[in-house]
Amino acid sequence: MAFLTEEELGSLKIEQSVFHIVGPKEVHFQLLEAFDATPHAAFFLDRIRSVNNGNHYTFLADAAARTQLGRIDKDAAQFQAESENLAEAFNEGHGGSTVIGAFLIFSLNCDTGRVFALLKFEDEKVLRYDIEDGTSGKPKPTLAEIGRTFVQNRHALQKAALVRLDGEGSVCLVDRQNPQRPAVYFEQFLGVKRVRNDDDLTRILVDVTKAVAYNHSDKLPADVMTSLTKRLYDATQSGGSVDGEKIEDWFTSIVGPLPKESEILTDFRKQLERARISGESFVLGKDAIPVPRNRKVETGLGVRVTFPAELQSSVVNIDEKKGLITIQDEIKFNDIELDASRRARR
Q1: Short-list 269, 242, 267, CA closest to 253
Q2: 8 Å CB contact between 170 and 58
Q3: Which conformational region is residue 96 in: left (phi greater than 0), alpha (psi within -120 to 50 degrees), or beta?
Q4: Taking 60 as the threshold, does the pLDDT of residue 104 lie above it?
């Protein structure tokens, strides 16, 4: 589910802003004064809106980040001091293979209240070019290297969190290096726990996929619908993952290719939104779906055959092209079935 509605995103305004320099070593850490983001509000708001779909978390009871943001919420004059406390806590866990960058904190407001954004931008070196007169009469390019930049490239914005403090507090977390399993230090810094685990998300995704496929069964290949449950089960056992920003890839891996503007995909996205898992990235849970006990086959004339799923084709052989079902086993029951729901008339 999107963290903020389209109306809320459209009404976002930056009230306060600051960034501090963080890095893998203490020498990189540098606290800076708050700055006025108004001249560049469009740039920063676009970056904030780009992380509106992510994994949903709630705060732990003793989350220090929630307390620090709460102080800012009550008294805007605490913004500088508490932003420094947040940056110090982030930098303590920000080590190992991480790189130097800027840790930005925004206090924002929208039509429904205050929102906080915490963004980690990695430093990227870029080349700036200019044009000047050349000796040959043709324009000559000049190049200069620039470091410490904020760029629009989505990969430069590696980690981000949107926070609302209403109720127990809610957090939308994005880790573009590890979308399915965000860095542990980032979760610990925020003091959050995920709302749904991998198994929960897998079960919901399978249920939504099955419901949407059945709703549009007349538009999907017949062989897909006849083996839909098996396809879904096999997919969950693959050890794969789901990327919330490319959720359509999951659906088409089950039912086959579809155009981006397909009404089926539109319905799929809407159903995920209703199920409140839109934008979630996760690893498919192998234990989320029970192991199939039986396999069911039904013919066009209503003949139904149910048999243990583990039986090999040497016992039950199904040839869909020829429309043949062959069972090689001893027959122990061969009788008619009466409708038990009807009582005999006296």
Answers
A1: 242
A2: yes
A3: left
A4: yes
